[in-house]
Amino acid sequence: MRLLTAPLAAIAITASVYLAEHAFPYWTMIAHWKEPLLFLAGLMAGIRWPDWDFFIPGLSHRSGLTHSILLPIVVYYMASPALAAGLSLGIALHLSSDIQPKAWTGGALIKFPVLGSIGKNLSPLWLFINIVGCIGIMAASLDIEPHFAQLVMLMVTSAGTVWYFSREEKKRFIPLATLAASGFLVHGIRSGLLTLTVVTQFFV
Ligand SMILES: [Zn+2]
Q1: What DSSP designation does 63 have?
Q2: Which residues cross the membrane (predicted)?
Q3: What are the tens digits of pLDDT across the range 44-68?
Q4: How many angstroms is it from 8 CA to the middle of ligand 1?
């Protein structure tokens, strides 16, 4: 049920934030809290969003379109980087759970319309690359937020991650290790420690 209710609640929060901003433009408090609230709404929706492939006609479960950075990228450029950052965190948490199925068969595999399943070798790689992408979008969004919003967003990130791993995902080791590895990779690339030449040399 939360598959439906959490994204709907997130849409309600997002709509309220934009309505309040429109109705009370002189309330600086709303401007102050707009980004953190959009981030929270994004997180709530993002955790459930990938499995909306159940509801979208034409998609098979574990669709590569919803189990990816596609939605955050569109939201980042078309709507709000803070909302995109929340979605990214939620999707990264979801994909970090999906990366440890009982077996890489059937329902665990990533699928695309027309193409079908991408197989047991590419599915984990697809999930990992998209977790890295999600964390990259989060970092890029946090860069451009004002200090207060950054602070609240980091607090929501910690609280959301603790909530997720205490309530939603009890097999924590592989998801947390994957998220940590992705975080280091994004940090390495952003700080120039890992240049793309080093990365390509590593793989060639
Ligand atoms: Zn999923």
Answers
A1: B
A2: 69-93, 125-142, 148-166, 173-203
A3: 999 999 999 999 999 999 999 999 9
A4: 18
Tens digits of residue pLDDT in 117-156: 999 999 999 999 999 999 999 999 999 999 999 999 999 9
CA of 98 to the centre of ligand 1 (A): 6
Q: What is the DSSP letter of 26?
A: T
What separation in Å is there between the alpha carbon of 2 and the centre of ligand 1? 14
Q: How far is the CA of 123 from the centre of ligand 1 (A)?
A: 12
Q: Are 129 and 168 in contact (CB under 8 A)?
A: no
Distance 54 CA to ligand 1 centre (A): 10
How many CB atoms lie under 10 A from the CB of residue 100?
A: 17
**Helix, strand, or coil here: 41?**
helix
- Please choose, from the candidates 105, 3, 102, the residue with its C-alpha nearest in 3D space to the C-alpha of residue 47: 3
- At 145-196, the pLDDT tens digits run 999 999 999 999 999 999 999 999 889 999 999 999 999 999 998 888 777 6
Please give the distance, rounded to the nearest whole angstrom, from the Cα atom of residue 162 to the centre of ligand 1: 19
Structural domain containing residue 151: 2-203
What is the Å distance from ligand 1's center to 66 Cα?
A: 8
Q: Tell me the pLDDT of the chain averaged across its residues.
A: 91
Distance CA 155, CA 13 (A): 18
Query: d(Cα 160, Cα 112) in Å, to the nearest integer?
Result: 30
* Residue in 172, 171, 99, 164 with CA at minimum distance from that of residue 130: 99
Q: How far is the CA of 94 from the centre of ligand 1 (A)?
A: 6
